[in-house]
Predict the 3D structure of the following.
Amino acid sequence: MYRTYPALALALLLLSSSVHAAGLQLLDGDPELKGAIWTPCTAAAQEVPLGNLEVTGTKTLPGVKDCPIKGARLPLIVFSHGRGGWFGQHHDLNEALADAGFIVAAISHPGDSVGDDAQRDSLSTWTSRPADIVRLIDFMVSDWKDKGAIDPERIGFFGFSKGGFTGLVLAGADPDFSRVMRYCTESSPFCDQVRNGDVPRSFARDRRIRATVLADTVPSGPFADANLASIQIPLQIWRSQFGGYGADPESTARVAGSLPGQPEIHIVPSGHYAFLAPCSAGLAAAVPRICTDTPSTFDRAAFHRMFDAEVVRFFSEKLGR
């Protein structure tokens, strides 16, 4: 099922949208679990200082620090960011999900995030990322102080860019890295390891994930019909029309068309970074590359009202609230 960016539907969503606070708990006690948890909350919105977790251009996030959780037996959504990203890069969607009655958890992937990029260009991150998400889910359902608020039978996943790769693997896809050799036209840690046959042989999976949303999966090359066939959960797929920064529109379209079942597919008339939260003035000044859209007339803030609402709808339909 293909959907495009509908102006009428967007207008209706804009008329009905509202802004509410989300509870925000910071995770900074474990180097493998640095991130945040968003929860349903009834208090008025504030700005929460990130302290040791702040990144260039972002010192606070909207929310209510350690707000008492509204509700019980709530569905959980876990997030995986893109290459070199961080846990807060989809904070508006995290907040929308929390406001809709979901608990949301996101971490910065060790070795492949802002301020921690030692393994960013190594093949090791392609195996460590799915394992990171399994570790996060384990923590949330077994060790988190508010674990009793989670319904462990209703867990979803959201992944952007390299996080999309992570989500396909967690859902059961078996990537074939030999397929990306044709893109290796120069030396890099990634390509050198592929040429030498030093590629991952096994990946972490997680059957606790019952529904997945993916945006502009990178790379798409390792996937074809045969190694996607084992995916059996509902999927919502978003892809940009113009791609960029590793996202090839033809490849993302090919993978979307190869997925089993009947995934819900949305095509957005912009580039790769349109899926990141609308930029503050500080972030736009500090990192303009991720805040500049194609075409320049694209309204990222308006798009995200629709995007957030569609993701909330999908998870609500597949996991319940």
